[in-house]
């Protein structure tokens, strides 16, 4: 006997393919990594067999999701959390369970082809996910400083036209994507990170280590310690000026031109 299709019978197979909604402040998905032993300190090159999803409580309308490895790296891969080796005994190993899901999401959205959200939002997501995984505030804040200051940065570089004091209007002309690679493993970064760890653990510290004020404080600290970094000074969109191009040329950064709409 052939039974007629009903609306319900059509909906059920489709709904089975849709991931269940993630409540605010929750991370879903159990990391399954391959091949076996890929999290070894000498390897740190894992492929993801499962998807991770996250909805930060601070931005409940936004969901972050990783991808399963499909044979086209770097999508679907992770090397764990961005922690220089000298800090493994103090902070934790890059594949520490509480760090892993935030790191998988952070890796996905910092790969050049997946930079669909501003770099500040991406690094903040990493911090919020760490806290939601139970990472203590001082460690999460230090890890946030590390990626905020020395992680990947990207911005759209657009031409502008002055329109008064402090005012600029965008022109329909050539636009570029400017990016800066991660520098967490450099000697300069490691020296700076040791100093920031001492600052965060100073017993005389009176400011909070958790909440929006703490994040704003870390961002201000990064700018105070690295005032010459264009990305820390500017937003997700940067106006083209001769000074900006000089800054880019001095560092040997590449600009990728974006076709005008």
What does this structure look like?
The protein has one domain. Helix content is 36%, strand content 15%. The protein is built from 8 helices and 12 strands. It has helices at 7-15, 97-110, 119-132, 137-150, 187-200, 212-225, 230-233, 242-251; strands spanning 26-28, 33-34, 46-48, 53-55, 64-65, 77-78, 153-158, 160-162, 168-170, 175-180, 237-239, 255-258. The strands form 4 sheets. A 4-stranded mixed sheet has the order 11-7-10-12, with no helix packed on it. Strands 1-4-5 form a 3-stranded antiparallel sheet, with helices on one face. It has a 3-stranded antiparallel sheet with strand order 2-3-6. Helix 2 (97-110) runs antiparallel to helix 3 and helix 4 (137-150) crosses helix 6. The radius of gyration is 21 Å and the shape is globular. The chain starts with 6 loop residues before the first helix and ends with a strand. Mean pLDDT is 86; it is low at 1-16.
Topology:
Elements lengths: L6 H9 L10 E3 L4 E2 L11 E3 L4 E3 L8 E2 L11 E2 L18 H14 L8 H14 L4 H14 L2 E6 L1 E3 L5 E3 L4 E6 L6 H14 L11 H14 L4 H4 L3 E3 L2 H10 L3 E4 L3
Parallel strand pairs: 7-11
Antiparallel strand pairs: 1-4, 2-3, 3-6, 4-5, 7-10, 8-9, 10-12
Helix pairs in contact: 2-3, 3-4, 4-5, 4-6
Outline of the structure:
The protein has 261 residues and is an alpha+beta fold.
């Amino acid at each position: 006997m052939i039974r007629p299709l009903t609306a319900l019978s059509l909906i059920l197979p489709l709904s089975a393919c849709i991931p269940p909604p993630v409540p605010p402040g929750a991370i879903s998905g159990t990391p399954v990594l391959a091949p076996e032993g890929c999290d070894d300190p000498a390897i740190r090159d894992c492929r993801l067999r499962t998807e991770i999803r996250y909805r930060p409580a601070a931005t409940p309308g936004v969901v972050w999701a990783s991808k399963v490895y499909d044979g086209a790296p770097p999508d679907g891969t992770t090397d764990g959390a961005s922690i220089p080796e000298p800090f493994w005994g103090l902070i934790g190993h890059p594949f520490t369970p509480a760090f892993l899901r935030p790191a998988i999401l952070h890796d996905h959205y910092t790969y050049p082809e997946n930079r669909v959200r501003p770099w500040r939002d991406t690094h903040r997501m990493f911090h919020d996910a760490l806290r939601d995984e139970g990472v203590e505030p001082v460690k999460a804040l230090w890890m946030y400083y590390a990626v905020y200051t020395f992680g990947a940065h990207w911005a759209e570089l657009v031409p502008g036209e002055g329109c008064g004091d402090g005012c600029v209007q965008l022109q329909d002309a050539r636009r570029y994507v400017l990016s800066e690679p991660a520098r967490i493993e450099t000697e300069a970064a490691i020296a700076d990170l040791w100093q920031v760890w001492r600052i965060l653990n100073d017993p005389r510290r009176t400011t909070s280590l958790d909440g929006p004020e703490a994040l704003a404080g870390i961002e201000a600290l990064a700018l105070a310690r690295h005032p010459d970094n264009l990305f820390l000074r500017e937003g997700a969109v940067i106006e083209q000026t001769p000074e900006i191009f000089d800054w880019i040329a001095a560092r040997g950064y590449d600009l990728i031109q974006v076709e005008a709409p």
